Task: structure prediction
Amino acid sequence: MLQNYFKIAWRNLIRNKTYSLLILSGLATGMTCALALWLYVHDELSFDRYHRYTDRIYRLNLHIKWSENEYKLSMASAPFGPVLRDEYPEIEKTLRVKKGAQLFRVGEKSLNVKELICADSTLFTFFDYEFVEGSAQNALKGKNSVVLTEKLAVNLFGRTTGIIGNFVTVKDSIPFSVTGVIREAPTNHHLKFEAILPYTNEAVSRVQLDKWDGFNTFTYLLLNDAKAAAKLEDKLPAFYKKYIAERIGDTDGTKVKFAISLQPLGDIHLHSSHLMGEENGSTMAYVYTFSIIGLFILLIAIVNYINLATARSAGRAKEIGIRKSVGSQWSQLIGQFLSESLLMAFLALLTSILLLNLLLPFFNDISGKSLTIKFLDLKTWTFCLGFTLLTGLASGVYPAFILSRFRPEQVLKGTPGRNSSGVIFRQSLVVLQFFISMVMIAGTITVYRQLNFMRTTQLGFNQRLVIRMPLQSPLLQENANVLKERILQNPLVENAALTNGSIGDQLNNKTTFSFYKNGSEESVSAEYFNVDADFTDVLQIPIADGRSFSDRLDHDSSNAVLINQAMLERLGWKSYRDGLIELNTRKVPVTGVISDFHLRSLHNQIEPLVLVLKKEKTDNLLVKVSGADLPKTIAALRKTFNDVNGNQPFEYHFLDQAFAKQYRTDEQKGQLFLAFSTIAIIIACLGLFGLATFMAEQRKKEIGVRKVLGASITSIVSMLSGDFLKLVLVAMVIAFPVGLYLMEKWLGNFAYKITPDWWIFPLAAGLSILIAIITVSFQSVRAALTNPVKSLRSE
Result:
């Protein structure tokens, strides 16, 4: 019986090629998009789920608030881990990790290792890494041991084996022995690194192991029992009062709100964007967004099937009447129609897998992922088969019930009757399709307007033609002023400045400054970094009040401080002259106020900032170039750099590129949104085209009568197109509030953003109407041009 169902289903599909092609195109495209987005969402949700102890690993997060200052941190200080382990028996092991960058050298070859972590030896207990050489038991045992990834080992030694015991020089002078080589961590691991150094080696980790208020270390806990996390978290306020409160000046434990929370390892990737320094990370909002888009596209494809299957019911009415007359049961007819939808779904699955395999490299390029289809994985095929069955049943259930209810005595007379509820249902489905399309069009416009706003908004300084050169080598840092003076001798260089601050990149150091006004003290948390006297000139940062730094004034050599307008507003001062700031245990006046400028992307609010004039301890050189001959300028900078210190490889990037990099994730999401919105509209148009075709076929006698009575082609086209345009207008009314809500939710992720404009929805509706007219008019004009004699000759 089942074999017979599928044989007849196949014959029906072959007999109606146009109909079958429309259905297959829509379903295959919808399934391809849904599968691609499933791969994306599955990858996002799979982060750190593969580790052996995933369910027992937690990261410490801190929420610190006092007065009007607030920190939300994913980092604790160095003593947290060991003291927590000794204090609470629920904790089996602890792990401390600090990110950084260092200069590595082997012989004459040197590399800037930009992604490096300093970690405790327990790292290999917490996380599962595959060793190519060495072992987890012996790696990081000594203070001068280093573990390399395969890629870095090849870059340094030219091979991945036979290098255990070889030495790598770090920071120009510190030798580290290679104790292990591991494969690169999977892309769905939240820690990215090229090398691992011992956390306890303070010379490279730059931590103070006994300092409680230096919040620069990721701290992980491995619990004996995952269920103990809630009880342990309840005990942590007492831990704060016992070990931390007095050390940060909260003598009675009530002045500072200091909340310590435990974040499950599996939540880190998608639930950390509210934490300082992780604002640009992935969020569940994107997971929900792309899940909904995938479901929407698949839903549009399913709606197409339902609409087209029910629209051509009149064409199959006699077939159903004959089947019922010769004894076919209702359940057999249901089985026949469901077998057709399932067969179409399986054909669409095969087509979609081929399409996905071809398009996956392009999808990876847009999304920034490295997704693959695991053809040999049983879970993959289980999901695909379940997904196909669900799609086939969802597509076929309604048409099967509608078609199987036809009465044989009516259909064999040629009067199957009109089902008004079926017409209303089909119209509702068309409204649903265009509602989804309009929301996606409006969403795409909003995404691109916001991205354009971020790209074109003035940052408060001139980033154009400013080159940042990192100074990783300690010897190069000592000779930084020599390098700067040599570079300034180049006529293609306009100016240069030294700093240890990060602009357009990672978070800068934050600390608490004490300000004094009329004898009262106020503590304010702020980002700060050292700069030389040319910093504001190189970046063309306006001075809002007072003056900038000057090398010509002896006072500025040790007492010069600039604050930004956000700091002045935070203090509530009318002028920078109203008070003093404590610097190196001395109370000194503020030199001036700089205009607010963005240190990072527009995801981040401009916060209070303190610039300290100090030429020492700088690790970045900013060079303003003329732009007259960039290749020649870069070549000259390279030569000068290598002449001053050839131990460090010459690296550079333009500041505008650094800011553009921060928007790359948003731009990737925008490109995905545009691509899938376009696909959704195309699928909707396929269904609309097919529906218009069958509506015109169903009304061909009516059109013939109207033409005989004198109706013009224009009036007939208007009549046929008008029915669809009414549905598009209904969809617009529903899409407006829903789309506005979704746009405001998405824009809430940005500190600086556009305001959703009312005109977006009429524009989206206009585009939808235009698309609908173009799609429907072809069939409407064709029907209107048909000779009425052909339509009426059977009468």
